[in-house]
């Protein structure tokens, strides 16, 4: 890792602590620069605005989350256990970094490009892991799946849709409360069991 990458990593780590403790709305670029004894000019050299830094923080956390999920999956054989592990780990990271999902983002009229890019990255990583789970289960003749990637996309879209069913305030479409996240997770687990049972039924029919 060269000096440029090291500095960027240090900035992301410092910003993660600030955002996780105070939230994005109550954190300033000046405070992050002071934490690192950097000039604001140097901080803005790496990240032109707070949203771009926030997106980098979310991307870093997402990569750590999926890396930990994949580590856990090495010791799991059953597809149902694997999918439930993914859901549990996602909820654990969400609760750990809940303040990062600032309610102030709900007021945004349109998601910034940088955040949209990170959301797409998260979706792609999740689809990749789910597809691998379905592919391995298919190879073990546990389920029948003709297209693991397409099946993963369908299942992920169904899980995402549950968020909108649980939200108490239907006008708030971005950040559920902690209680709503927990309820969503429980519903997603039930969906996983039903979904995988359907794939097993398809195998024998």
TrEMBL record:
From the UniProt annotation, which stretches of this protein bind DNA?
28-47
Ranges for domain HTH tetR-type come to 5-65
Keywords, A to Z, come to: DNA-binding, Transcription, Transcription regulation
Matching entries from InterPro entries are given as: DNA-bd_HTH_TetR-type_CS, Homeodomain-like_sf, HTH-type_TetR-like_transc_reg, HTH_TetR, Tet_transcr_reg_TetR-rel_C_sf
The residue range of the signal peptide is none
Q: Which domain of life does this protein belong to?
A: Bacteria
User: What protein is this chain from?
Assistant: TetR/AcrR family transcriptional regulator
Species of provenance:
Olivibacter oleidegradans
């Amino acid at each position: 890792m060269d000096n440029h990458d090291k500095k960027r990593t240090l900035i992301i780590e410092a910003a993660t602590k600030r955002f996780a403790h105070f939230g994005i709305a109550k954190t300033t670029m000046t405070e992050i620069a002071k934490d690192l004894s950097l000039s604001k000019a140097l901080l803005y050299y790496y990240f032109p605005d707070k949203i771009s830094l926030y997106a980098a923080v979310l991307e870093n956390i997402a990569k750590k989350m999926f890396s930990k999920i994949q580590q856990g999956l090495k010791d799991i054989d059953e597809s149902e256990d694997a999918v439930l592990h993914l859901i549990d780990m996602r909820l654990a990271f969400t609760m750990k970094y809940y303040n990062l999902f600032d309610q102030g983002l709900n007021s945004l009229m349109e998601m910034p490009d940088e955040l949209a890019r990170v959301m797409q990255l998260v979706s792609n990583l999740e689809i990749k892991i789910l597809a691998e789970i379905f592919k391995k289960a298919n190879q073990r003749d546990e389920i029948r799946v003709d297209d693991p990637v397409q099946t993963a996309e369908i299942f992920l879209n169904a899980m995402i849709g549950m968020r909108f069913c649980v939200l108490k305030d239907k006008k708030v479409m971005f950040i559920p409360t902690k209680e709503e996240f927990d309820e969503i997770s429980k519903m997603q687990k039930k969906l996983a069991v039903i979904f995988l049972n359907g794939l097993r039924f398809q195998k024998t029919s």
